[in-house]
Amino acid sequence: MQIGIDLGGSHIAVGIISEKNIIVTKREINIEKINKTEDIKQYIVDNIKILISQVLKDVGAPSCVISKIGISAPGKIKNNIIYDMYNLGIKEFDLTKILSEHYGVEVAVRNDAKCAALVEKKIGSMQNYDDCVFLCLGTGIGGATFINGRMLEYTKEWGSEYGHMIIKKDDLECKCGSKGCFEKYASMKAFKNGIIKLLNLDQDISSENILKLLINKVNERNQEVNQYIDEYIENLIVGISNIVNILAPEAICIGGSFVYYEEILYKRLLEKLNLKNFNAVRPKVLLAKMKNDAGMIGSLIK
Ligand SMILES: [Zn+2]
């Protein structure tokens, strides 16, 4: 029995995943309000163990039936260890070792954007493309690259970190230490923070309410909101153009919370891309099919 774990910046989800990549049962908890002063690593381990026992209980199975555990995590993965999970304030976390010792099975961890990309390639929007790029627009921008149908995986280092491609020289400071990184302008976090500032909204406003408000403002033809969206899309296109010039993908698939903004952002992105000249062949720009469960399933795809 395979267990998939999605360790996100705001939640932990655990599921039993079938050999056919279907979720048999899943459980999750929100960790957004976690007290940052407590031992966050211990907190994560404790909650993963609780969630695993809950999903096993759902199907009436003991823990000895677990054959493999996969983890999807933000941050950089090197030698099966997680590094730089900035949003949880974790610099280094050998979660695979802890779980492997506890359950006595193989545990593998993979970057969350790469998990989602593998799912899109196998059963989602990128199935019919050999050369394609996945961009995960969420808190930051993660990515993955497929050439000749295979995802580029690095033996010693991480790569396809499109979020840290510099699109503006000496501009906004990024957590990675550089300035002007793509994700400072085109991540969904950057987009939402800009809207909150522009409309003077409460910092804690939910994503659903931001979306509702934006739809109203766009329908009312609010000029400053429309200008802001245009500027966001133009920055996104700078990054996409760079990727197209370097890799000439047949398709670029966009995932992350961007997919919930199909009306407001995706349609406008397509309109503006149609007006653009590309040196390489114009790629298809697609939306990810698999939403929240992609990490959990992708953590187990070979
Ligand atoms: Zn950066």
SSE topology:
Blueprint: E1 2-7, E2 11-17, E3 23-30, H1 40-58, E4 68-73, E5 76-78, E6 81-85, E7 90-93, H2 95-103, E8 106-111, H3 112-123, E9 132-137, E10 141-147, E11 150-151, H4 183-186, H5 188-198, H6 207-219, H7 223-247, E12 251-255, H8 262-274, E13 284-287, H9 294-298
Parallel strand pairs: 1-4, 4-8, 9-12, 12-13
Antiparallel strand pairs: 1-2, 2-3, 5-6, 6-7, 9-10, 10-11
Bound molecules: zinc ion (ZN).
Structure description:
The chain is an alpha/beta fold. It has two domains: 2-111 and 293-298, 2-Layer Sandwich (Nucleotidyltransferase, domain 5), CATH 3.30.420; 116-287, ATPase, nucleotide binding domain (Nucleotidyltransferase, domain 5, 2-Layer Sandwich). Helix content is 37%, strand content 23%. It has a five-stranded mixed sheet. Strands 11-10-9-12-13 form a five-stranded mixed sheet, with helices on both faces. Helix 7 (223-247) crosses helix 8 (262-274). The protein is globular. 38% of the residues are buried. The model has no long low-confidence stretch (mean pLDDT 92). Zinc ion (ZN) binds at residues 164, 174, 176, 178, 181. Zinc ion (ZN) is lined by residues 164, 174, 176, 178, 181.
